[in-house]
Amino acid sequence: MIESDSVKRVEQMMDQALAQYYETGEYHYPIVPGMEEWTMTQDRTGVVIDVISIPEAIVQELSNKQLLRLTVENPNVYLANAYPFHVFVQRFSTQFNGLQVLLTRDGVVPFLLDEYLSIPIDRAASDRDHMSPFEGRNQSASYLNIRNFLLEGLLAIDETYAAAILDQRFLQNVAEKYEVKLNSPENSESRLISLEASRMIVVPTLKQAGLLPIEVKDGQERYPYELIIDDALYETLSMSNYSEDEYLLDLFTQWLAAAY
C-alpha cells in the first residue's frame, strides 16, 4: 500500500504539471522511471496510481504534434521489450488515451507519414545501448530511434496501414531505414525492437503481394505481422545464407522496384 503522504506528493506533482500546461501550453509527464515517486506508484501487480495518461481535462486540446511527443516520451515505452513489438503497439494504441485521441482524428495518416518521413534515413538506428524516451527535448539519437520505430508501428496497425502503404515515399523510406538498421554495428534491445518495427510494415505488405506464406484459420489470417516459414521458405533461407531480415529486405526491395 502507498502511504497517504506519498499519495499526496504524487497528486501534488500531477497537479503542478497540469498547472504548468495552463501556463505554457505544453504538458510533460511529472513522474517517470528513475524517480523516487515512480516507485511509489507501482506494486508487484502493476500501476497503483496512473501517472502515464494525459489528464482528461486537456487531452482533446492537445495538437497532433503534442500527442505524438507525449507518445514517444510515455513511460510505457520501456515495456516495448517485454512483448513482441506488434503486441506492444496494439496494446499501447488502445490503452494510452493520447493515442486513442490521435488515431481518431481526421488526417492522422498524412500527419504520421509526414512525421515519419521527416526523420533522416541515417538516424533510423540508435547509437545508444538503451532506450531513454525522456530525452525528447534534445533530439538525441536515442529519441529519434524511438520516434522512428513507434511511427512505423503506428503506421502498421489496422487503423492506418491500408492508407499508409498507398504512399510510395513511405514504402521506399521503410526499405532504406530497414537497411540502415540491418547495417548498424550495435546489437542492443533498441535495435532489435527497431527491426521488429520494420517487419510490421514489410511482412504484411509482402504477404499481400503473394510473396510470403500466410497462415489461415476459419477464414481469417493468423499472425499477420509474423514471418511464417514453410518448407519452401526454409529451404530458400538455408540455401541463401541470408538472415531472415536480410531476406525480407531483399524481397521487399525487389517488390518495390517491380511495383513502381
Automatic annotation (TrEMBL):
This is Uncharacterized protein. It comes from Oleiphilus messinensis.
